[in-house]
Amino acid sequence: MNKKLYLLTLLLLPLVTFAQQSGNIKSTLEIYNIETDEREIVLIEEDHFEAPNWSRDGNFLIINQHGKLYKVDLKTNNKTLINTGFADRCNNDHGISFNGKWLAISHQAESEPVNGEPAKQGSRIFVLPIEGGTPKAVTPNVPSYWHGWSPDGKRLAYCAERNGEYDVYTISVDGGEESRLTTEPGLDDGPEYSPDGKTIYYNSMASGKMEIWQMDVDGANKKQLTNDKYSNWFAHPSPDGKSFVYISYHEDQGSAHPGMKDVSLRLMNLANGSVKTLCSFTGGQGTINVPSWSPDGQRFAFVSYQYIK
Questions:
Q1: Residue span of the signal peptide, if any (predicted)?
Q2: Which of these, 3, 88, 217, 246, is most buried using a 10 Å CB contact count?
Q3: What pTM does this model have?
């Protein structure tokens, strides 16, 4: 990653975060139906929340807000706090295992001391029961940002910074040694497993611009899938594996994915590579960072934003 660009990103993102956290933002939790091309509003608050997951039984969504996770019931639209124990500084990288029993979270915590080096503060991945409970640490190192469960529930995929480079890694859900899958200079982020467990989709700066890529689960056979004027992030494969939805910034953002930008949600058909623009709005960071498809594959959830002052 270009160090000057990386430092600029670090300087700019807190400004966006402050605006979002200061009560200046209206957040709208929405559902998009790909069969009817209709948008349905689930929840609106004059506050900042992010990153919906859709439960495997189809009954609720999970969002993060001010470091905590909440369940939004799709019958009543009521929002209730999920018990995440000591983990009260969760970010927007969280998601549900394929069997629906476990929740992975990324929580600001201390790393484990290694070779006598002092612990560091940063995002660390934990897992806990879907109904809530005490989180169990998975990644010893920070920062680590969760993005995908393997379909068999045995491994997690995530973005991590090690020695100044952000790359894609996987690790056993029980912890242990992590496997690095990308090595090209520049940011690699947003890894997510295909439903058959054979492919990982991710976004990468490997071509010099942020695009969607795919690779085998061992890191082999990397292939660029998008190549257009947009800055493309966070590919989420549909439950049938035939397409993926992703977010496109209308203007190139380099390695950054800020909030409050002009964006579109788009759908790529994996059989022929065709792309359909579904909807456009103000969003970006927090809109669709993590898996959010409904179990039937007809809908997905996302968050749009508006300034209110």
A1: 1-19
A2: 246
A3: 0.92
